Amino acid sequence: MNVVVDRVSKSYGRGAEAREVLTETSLTVRSQEFVSIVGPSGCGKSTLLMMMAGLLRPTSGEIRLGDEPVTGPPAGLSVVFQDYSRSLFPWMSVRRNLTTALTASRLGKEEQRSRVEHALESVGLAGKGEMYPWQMSGGMQQRVAIARALVTEPTVMLMDEPFAAVDAQTRADLEDLVLRVRHEYDVTVAFVTHDIDESVYMADRIVVLAANPGRIAADLTVDLPRPRDQVETKLDARFAKLRSEVFRLVMRPDTPATT
Amino acid sequence: MQTDHAAVRGPDRADWGGRAGPVALGVTGVVSLLLLWQLLGSLDVVPRSSLPGPWSVLRALPTILGDQDFLAGAADSAAATAITVVVGSLVAVAVGLVASSFAFLQRPTMVVVNTFRSVPATALIPIGVLIFGLGMEMKVSIALYAVVWPILINTIYGVATTEPMRRDVARSLRWGWWRQQALVTLPSALPSILTGVRVAVGIALVVVISTELLGARYGVGTVLVQYTQASRPEVVYAGVLLLGTAGALLFSALVRAERRLVRWVHHD
Amino acid sequence: MTSRTTSRITGATMRPNRAAIALRRTASGVGNLWLLALVLVLWEIYGRVSGSLFVPPISRILQNFGDVWLGGPASHLFLSDLFWSEVTTSLSRFARGWGLAVVVGIGCGVVLGRSRVIAQMYGPVVRFFAAIPNTVLLPIAVQIFGVASNMNVFLIFLGSVWVVMINTADGVAGVDPMWLRSARSLRVPRWVLYLRVIVPAAAPQILAGLRVSLGIGLILMVISELYATTEGLGFQIVVAQSSFRYLDMWSAFVLIGLIGIVLNLAFGRIETRLLRWQRRSGLDAL
Q1: Which of A79, A115, B84, C152 could join B143 in a cystine, given CB atoms 3.0 to 4.6 angstroms apart?
Q2: CB contact under 8 A, C283 and B157
Q3: Is B230 an interface residue toward C (CB < 8 Å)?
Q4: Residue A256 DSSP label
Q5: What CATH number does the domain located at A3-76+158-251 have?
Q6: What percent of chain A lies above the pLDDT cut of 70?
Q7: What domains lie within chain C, and their CATH numbers?
Q8: Is B187 helix (H, G, I), strand (E, B) or coil?
Q9: Is the pLDDT reported for residue B15 higher than 70?
């Protein structure tokens, strides 16, 4: 299902104090696509994602999931938040965290059970359902958050800087995990990050935002072969070229392209 | 033994509704409750003799405010509360600082505190009456028993949560025990201690009035019991309203004083 | 916290020997009792040396305690008939009053914490009620209910409900918005949002309020029984006092104290269990 962002603006505050964080932004994430959204801090990339998730309302413009306008959190769409320690419910076991995500979908007990098992297995946490988030490392907790997003078998998954809080090795593992489950669950992904390497490595397409006010600066297609590999892909000349292009757009938006 | 530092928390530290919202809303709330009160009487849910209407209670306010006994009693209760809180704070903070300074004393002290503070202080009143009679001495000693534990717990808790770095600084400056307590430990523990003191004020009031209901010679409680026996419930309610108002004012003053005293906390 | 180890051979997660842990805990628990023991010994010495009629040595109090409150048959757990009748009377009053305060306090607290309008309407009134030193309501309670159990229950309820309500409202209003946002994005039904997200998230504060109210409830249970009743633990103290049986007075006091201690310990247990998920600092060492 396509996610369509149609001339969306967002400002905070009112009257003279109003601050526009995003202006007249349009973008379409096509079905099955993996789109990275990257940009300098203050470009409104998280705001954009939260509006796509139905958690914030645009000041003007419209967001559609398929043909339906998004007015609240839509069914078939999951979010993985940046801060796992604050988005998972620490008083619930891992299993309970996942079944809570299923309460809205009214499935039978047996179906719930098998979905939870499957989701845990997909993220490499089979048999860890009875643990509590506080007994787990940060990386494991973020895996739980991903499993909780997948357990509803969504068509679209939105990820808001999901790996900002984990160390480098864990991060690489989690990146590959997301690329794998994305195919397993046939899910469309919009992935916000401030890490330029990550944005290139993960995506089919990169949307670069500029700041003050937030707007789309570029929309680049990533023509790197799949499956991606942490070593091989990053050695590819096209990777380096894309990487420096995105870097220039994000860090030095005023200099003209050299190529 | 369990710790229950979290237990010692004042009744009014929330921010919800704390910032005065539209006055109209607050007034609506009060008025709706007054109407409910009136209704309870009118519909005879509660007999008039037990719950007089709001209007007659309001008319009884001058009676109680003009009653010399009530005013003297209020002064007596206030004095007992004040003495209790001051003495109790001094003792508890001193003991708390000493107990926290020696590792071998910390847990055993918590055991003692947790044991004695679980004993409801009011059960001591008859014994206190035997030992101290019906005067100020009795009120203060029983209230002291009730008040010391929460302040002590909060002192120990406050010291335990002192930023270790600050203590390292003190040690690297080769400060002695007294100076370290005065310049590092006590200021760090102050917010927690003040919360304990605020809780203590409430407890002291409750216990002091309890002693008065059970026979102490002077005090607010004593006077209200007399009015109850004289079948003047509206005067009793008027007294309760006054006490509630005084209590609310006292607590908000304490909160404000506390904020001033520990202004630095939020800039840490 | 995670006292689990993975067996290298079976790969199974197993807990270290529970009995060993329990034993170690008990040992360190006993090690911390010396100061309490010292206090009791000092009491004993004072009682003996002063020869005061009013402050008997603890050994004589305990002896009397055994005579009055213990000595029942095994089927009654060796507790006397008086114990069963008085303790159940007092505790059932406490349970009814406090239980009602917990239900009403949490219920109203959640509403106050969630609705800004209701908080602005009734917040000040709730604070006002909380500021009334609640024993002062005792004469009124007797007027309304007469000398009956409902009077004690009413007073316990009225005294403990405000702390619960204010702490709940405080906790609910302060729930981390990330959890709420996360719950919203999961499209959980309303009852799940309240029962499984908001209330558990506010649990640390709610439980803190409950603990304070537990102490207040006990204080009020005792004072209301001292003031006017015809049965219950407080009444036993009054009877002993009026017939100059000072040892009986003290042993009733000890019994009330023990009940308070047991209730507080039990509460602490439940609290720790419910709040296991909370990452806590080294304060647990205290």
Answers
A1: B84
A2: yes
A3: no
A4: P
A5: 3.40.50.300
A6: 98
A7: 5-57 (no CATH), 74-285 (1.10.3720.10)
A8: helix
A9: no
